[in-house]
Nucleotide-binding universal stress protein, UspA family (Roseovarius azorensis), 134 residues
Amino acid sequence: MYHKIIVALALDHGISQTALQVARALRTEGGEIIALHAYEPVQGSVRAYLGEEVIEGAYKRAQALLAERVAGEPDIRAVMLRGHSGRAITDYAEGIGADCIVVGSHKPGLSDFFLGSTAARVVRHAVCAVHVLR
């Protein structure tokens, strides 16, 4: 069905294996799966209280966790981005010409009751198909 699939992974939730299985089922022969995590940098006044070594250490831990999630998965490429998750995912998908994004939905707030906030933003702004996993 899809040739270039992005699987958006939230590293603090256990949906990774299910999302990767869904992506494999949706992938055409010879297609590509990209496991993507968008690392949201510390914002505002909180950043003033953290040293750059703490911030960079957290980023490197997230990179290691992403690599661990796709270890032993030779057909999946891991990509780590920095930025607001909804925006980073959709911008990256558009930039590489992805034709599908698989994203999990969890812990919705009141304004995004039926989808989690990241999933809702991806659905609203993606220029390709989006498969939302509950």
